[in-house]
Amino acid sequence: MKVYFNNRKLERACSSKRAAAKAWGAENGKKAIQRLVELRAAEKLSHLSRVPQMRCHQLKGRRAGQFTVDVKHPFRLIFKPAHDPVPLKPDGGIDWDQVSAITILSIEDYHG
Q: What whole-number distance in Å separates Cα of residue 99 and Cα of residue 82?
């Protein structure tokens, strides 16, 4: 998949293991970089469902239209489809098979 970033600060933090470790700690930084490699290797969003340890799922409520994958508990990598318009299924849900580009929004613990 093509991966974009919401802002330059986030992109810089994800540019290397060292920068990621500085931003989120050694373990979270290493896992964040690993997740980015896995996201880039996937052809489509639907391919992520075949990687159970990522726990890719769509968010609800105020984060509707966004997705998340596990980094290291409690951190999550949050992203959205980078399509305009976002590809939808006939029932109105996002068509995971058509999402081939994403925008990384943040890496955070949104539960706290």
A: 8
